[in-house]
Amino acid sequence: MKEYDFYIVPTPIGNLGDITLRALEVLKSVDIIACEDIRVTQKLLNHFNIKTKCISYHKFNEKERINKILEILGEGKRMALVSDAGTPLFCDPGAVIVEELRKHGFSVTSLPGANAVVTFLSQIPRTDEYFTFIGFLPKTESQIVEILKKNKFSDTVFYESPNRLISTLEIIKNYNPEAKVAVGRELTKVFEEIITDSVGNVISYFKEKGVKGELVVLVFKQIEKEDTADIEDKIKLLISKGFKAKEISIILSSLYNLNKNSVYKKILDM
Questions:
Q1: Would residue 47 count as lying in a domain?
Q2: Full-model pTM
Q3: Which H, E and C letters describe the chain, residue by residue?
Q4: Domain that holds residue 238
Q5: pLDDT tens figures, 50-73
Q6: Do 106 and 169 share a domain, yes or no?
């Protein structure tokens, strides 16, 4: 198996049994593991009897750690990067060092593994494969509403904290009282649950039950209101003017706030 200088290694988001055999092999074989919180990572390593040395690498010391990591790799040693849970660079540190490593010619690879977004979406029936991942939402209502408006024709996924969930859902309800949402809580853990319902019903559910644990939220896309026949007429007109399908989808999505991929599919189906 080819050896790399630097490995990006996903770790379980809740159930330790979800770690891959390759991830265990890499964590055992590298010289040093860079991690967000050494205490959290040490619990994982102890569980699998891995003795590899750890150093801290988190969002507050990313830039400070660059020279140290370059020095370590320059000595011919190999390293792995892990988050407390899930895949590094998904709302977790890593982008800064990976960019620097590639600039300096070090080899970098990423292992497949646990990711809360993928785990969540694989349990949610959707009308198509398109979605927008926001990460964590901004703090102000106006910023959140702006994101909802921008992505109203795309399923929108984001992480949320327990103490903000209800207030965020109420912002969504104020923006669109008919919104449908799904909330995934404690994925892969003993008390995992996924609630899919109108935003009002989901608010009522969590107000009564309380909110605990790690959360992933999906706001389902709005149904486009534009008249189908009118869209087809516009498409035919643009085709007659010599525009290609891709160009037409861009033009109509920009002018009429339609989903570009839906317009493109409609053109191909005509």
A1: yes
A2: 0.79
A3: CCCCCEEECCECCCCHHHCCHHHHHHHHHCCEEEECCHHHHHHHHHHCCCCCEEEECCCCCHHHHHHHHHHHHHCCCCEEEECCCECCCCCCCCHHHHHHHHHCCCCEEECCCCCHHHHHHCCCCCCCCCEEEEEECCCCHHHHHHHHHHCCCCEEEEEECCCCHHHHHHHHHHHCCCCEEEEEECCCCCCCEEEEEEHHHHHHHHHHHCCCCCEEEEECCCCCCCCHHHHHHHHHHHHHCCCCHHHHHHHHHHHHCCCHHHHHHHHHHC
A4: 228-269
A5: 999 999 999 888 888 999 999 999
A6: no
